[in-house]
Design brief:
single chain; about 300 residues; 10 strands; 8-stranded parallel sheet
């Protein structure tokens, strides 16, 4: 079965300023690496925009309205010290969220075995009523809501290997035993959430913290010993990946020391688990990753595993 790629052109129109790490060159770096011949098997599809109904499954009407109202006619505007919007930001965010929801439809209706969404702005920090951490709408939570509301799934898992804890996803999942969220992340590190004692309801939240300077051994041990057994015991019907690549040793935004082979390893582990639990149904959504060379390299190995696994 196929692997679908969504990379909406509108996602390049979210302008954040020359000094902001989450800038449009990330979009181009991924586009360039995925133009390589070994990715010729990708089905490159066109994403729709998310609807208001889809957004309101996760976000309050007031939050959605505030995002729209904050967009300037030109230049950029700050929602907080880290999160900015520009004239193209709402369209970018709507296409990012729409791609996430469409990807769920694709794997559930059999159009694809798995999907990678090269989208921005990222989403895992966005809470139901607050944009933060570069994120406007929570793409992974919206994908999980699509699976629940449209396809009737009762066990949806989201896993997150971004260097930062996905506080917004945890907020969405932690009181719903039909959802599972697991994250490996640097701690201490912004947003200062994701302690291992945070376990949700019936243990549906699993946080594996990694000390600054941790590398491959600690990362692989956290997934092997803490996350993967609990994920497999949950037996998800769909696996959603918040695929952040900012735990790479070259990334400027934190202090972990992962390399591309670590992302190949975790991708293979997750695809293998999905093959055992949910007929290979994986939706992978881009989150962080701010060194352009490392981002392109790590996306390349991740997508190659999706294609071949």
């Amino acid at each position: 079965m196929a692997t679908i790629l969504y990379q909406p052109p509108a996602c390049a129109d979210h302008i954040t300023g020359d000094e902001h790490p989450e800038h449009p060159l990330r979009h181009r770096a991924i586009q360039t690496i995925l133009e390589h011949e070994k990715f010729s098997g990708l089905i490159r599809a066109v994403a729709p925009k998310a609807t208001r109904e889809q957004l309101e499954r996760v976000h309050t009407p007031g939050h959605i309205d505030r995002i729209y109202d904050a967009v300037p006619e030109d230049g950029i505007a700050y929602l907080d010290a880290d999160t900015v919007v520009s004239p193209g930001s709402v369209e970018a965010a709507l296409y990012a969220a729409g791609a996430a929801c469409e990807a769920v439809d694709d794997v559930m209706n059999g159009s694809a075995r798995n999907v990678f969404c090269a989208i921005r702005p990222p989403g895992h920090h966005a809470e139901p009523d607050q944009a933060m951490g570069f994120c406007l709408f929570n793409n992974a939570a919206l994908a999980a809501a699509q699976a629940r509301h449209v396809h009737g799934l009762t066990r949806v898992a989201i896993v997150d290997f971004d260097v930062h804890h996905g506080n917004g996803i945890q907020a969405f999942c932690e009181n719903d035993p039909h959802l599972f969220y697991a994250s490996s992340h640097q701690y201490p590190c912004w947003p200062d959430t994701g302690l291992e004692m945070e376990t949700g309801i019936d243990g549906n939240i699993v946080n594996a913290t990694l000390a600054p300077g941790a590398g491959s051994d600690e990362f692989r041990a956290a997934w092997t010993n803490k996350i993967l057994p609990k994920l497999e015991a949950f037996r998800p019907e769909l696996l959603i990946i918040s695929a952040g690549f900012d735990a790479h040793s070259s990334d400027p935004c934190a202090h972990l020391r992962l390399l591309a082979p670590d992302y190949a390893w975790i991708s293979m582990e997750l695809v293998g688990l999905a093959n055992r639990c949910c007929n290979g149904r994986v939706v992978s959504l881009l989150e962080g990753g701010y060194d352009l060379h490392a981002l392109a390299s790590c996306v390349g190995v991740h997508v190659h595993v999706l294609l071949t696994g």
